[in-house]
Design goal:
This protein is α+β, with helices and mostly antiparallel strands. It has two domains: about 210 residues, Nuclear Transport Factor 2, Chain: A; about 80 residues, Pdz3 Domain, CATH 2.30.42.10. It contains seven helices and twelve strands. The strands form two sheets. Strands 2-1-6-5-4-3 form a six-stranded mixed sheet. Strands 7, 8, 9, 10, 11 and 12 form a six-stranded antiparallel sheet that branches. A hairpin with a 2-residue loop joins β9 and β10. The chain is elongated, with a radius of gyration of 40 Å.
Length: about 300
């Protein structure tokens, strides 16, 4: 590059010297030399300008290429992460479908060999515990209808975390099934969380945790009252208790036929009834005793 520049400058200088000899008759030698220097400087400046422009164009082109590469890589990475999230969620949904149909061979195929679950206070192997816990329901003809929603996934490398809200309807037609459900129909909402790992065979569940949400009664208890019932500190107007006509300040003394002496008594009954179930509720409003039927709702 720089050799080309030297040759170009030299040729232009020789051309200028030739013009000096042609004009010596009408100019002094000093003037001719001055013209040569001016010609040389102008040509050199133009050449340096061209070189700088070429460098700028080259830098701009290289920068554009790098930016395009980075943007493309980010798009590919984002697309890959979204694909992984969808794949992990699909594995969890397939797991729920397998449990719903009592297809535990299918469920096992979605787990790592040492997969663990935690239901109460400590982790334990998914199998044989999960299969054994559902076997009485299957034998009694209990049907399960899961309605998963709000599935969310996060992916970090080869590890994914998925949580899903699982509304479920349990129905039974046999005496054994109705005994298990305490009726013909039961509605339960679960929140389930899973940790999955990516294997050569795809995403597999390595850990699972299930929490059953109690049905919504729609009240906040006054923790200051320790005896004589559970006082309602707040009643949601759009909640089950509010719809039934209960108000803040009412004191709950009976819930579904169970006497309520304090907030702990009600807390212990939070799983005693299903979503959608109608419960007879009695409160004291001043000196007045009021009994109403409340239809429990799903927790939101």
């Amino acid at each position: 590059m720089f050799e080309g520049v030297s040759v170009d400058v030299g040729l232009q200088s020789c051309s200028a010297l030739a013009r000096v000899h042609e004009t010596l008759s009408g100019q002094t030698q000093l003037e001719a030399v001055r013209n040569v220097r001016t010609d040389f400087v102008v040509n050199s400046v133009c050449l340096r300008g061209k070189t700088k422009m070429q460098r700028r164009v080259g830098v701009l082109f290289a920068t554009t290429v790098v930016i395009s590469f980075v943007v493309g890589a980010c798009r590919m990475r984002t697309a890959s992460e979204e694909d992984d999230k969808k794949a992990a969620i699909n594995v969890v949904l397939a797991h729920e479908q397998g449990v719903q149909t009592y297809d535990f061979d299918k469920v096992d195929s979605l787990h790592t060999p040492n997969a663990r679950s935690i239901e109460e206070s400590y982790p334990q192997p998914f199998e044989p515990g999960e299969r054994q816990s559902y076997q009485p329901n299957k034998d009694a003809g209990v049907r399960i209808d899961y309605h998963p929603q709000d599935a969310v996934a996060e992916v970090r490398g080869n590890v994914a975390w998925v949580t899903v809200t699982l509304h479920s309807v349990w129905t039974a037609d046999t005496p054994a099934g109705r005994a298990i459900l305490s009726g013909s129909v039961g509605h339960v909402t679960y929140v389930e969380s899973f940790i999955l790992v990516k294997t050569p065979a795809g995403w597999k569940i390595a850990f699972g945790h299930t929490t059953m949400l109690p049905p919504n009664f729609g009240v906040q208890a006054d923790s200051q009252q320790e005896h004589g019932g559970m006082k309602f500190a707040e009643v949601s107007e759009g909640g089950p208790a509010g719809k039934a006509g209960f108000k803040s300040g009412d004191v709950l003394i009976d819930y579904g036929g169970q006497k309520i002496e304090n907030g702990n008594d009600f807390y212990n009954l939070r799983y005693a009834h299903y979503e959608g179930e109608k419960v007879m509720v009695t409160v004291m409003r001043g000196q007045e005793k009021i009994t109403k039927e409340v239809t429990l709702e799903a927790m939101k």
